[in-house]
Amino acid sequence: MEQQGTPSGAPTNPAARPVVAGPGPASTPLAHAAPPPPAPPFWHPGDAPLPPDLSPRGKQKPGRKRRRFGWGKRITALVAVLLLVAIGIFWSWDAGLRRTGALQSYAGRVGNTKGTNWLIVGSDSRADLTEAQRKKLATGFAAGSRTDTIMLVHTGSAKTTLVSLPRDTYVPIDGHGKNKLNAAFAFGGPSLLVRTVEQVTGVHIDHYAEIGFGGFASMVDAVGGVRICVEQAINDGNAGINLQAGCQKLNGAQALGYVRSRKFATGDLVRVQHQRQFLAALLSKVASPGTLANPFRSIPLGYDAVDAITVDKGSHIWDVVSLGLALRDAGGGNGVTLTVPISGFANEAGAGSVVLWDHAKAVRLFAALVSDSALPADLVPKS
Prior knowledge:
Number of strands: 17
Low-confidence stretches: 1-11, 140-144
Shape: elongated
Order of helices and strands: EEHEEHEEEEHEHEEEEHHHHEHEEEH
Oligomer: single chain
Helix content: 25-40%
């Protein structure tokens, strides 16, 4: 007896054969499940999204998201690149420094003293200048090398102290009797000059820096000139300048003439004042935001400075930068600048007109540098 509602010929046991729904109103028995319908050949806007494995971008791995290079990472990468470039430039400057054996050991050399002491020398050597440069800078064609500028710079626990040592100072020079201080440089180069300064001051020299004519002028031009206030008109053919009194901007050639000129009643004493004045103005311009923030000025300036400076074999570019900052502070009023105390002038056989130090005051001055203490109040120039 057939069950009511069961089609004729269908099995009475539903589990006997698999049944799947077909397109018609009735079910059709199959041996296996039918495959899913194929994906549409084309996709149009508004259609449902395609499955991931059929997406035009290809199959993506489950749980993996596409990484995006955001602005934070871009800025970090840019800073890293700029830092690497800066380090590369810094190291190239250090490698480009010229070095000399200025700090040589000798019997009885002054031992290490407190603080750090630099001997800065302005050399008048024309060896690296072309004929056109010698004419432009009015350096003449003298052979050999002398020093127009000799400065002792002390840094330590007290304020930075910059002391000008007049080149005509009458001092004993090992193996050459007594003569002008700059004669030591002519007789034996940087090492004999360092030795002579140590012996007459009692101050141990830790670093040596020498700058030449051409390099000085190039540095001034690299910063676009330096503004200086000229107290009195200067017309000096030997220095190649004709400056009116008053504040004005000097280019490289004019600046070189200004710090070289001795056409004054007290000659070298006025010149060393001009040298300190201009050094402070130059370093102030170098450290200004308009120079440091402008790579078209700061980078060429760095290379000009490297070409201009010769240092001792133990000095590096970071030592030079530290010196520049100390000199800027000293010239800007955060230190002391002065000339070694002078007692008078004399004419000495074989040396000509020379400068004589005030021995008692000079001893007190250099004793303060040796002990890294503040200068005696009576030696500090009144501002």
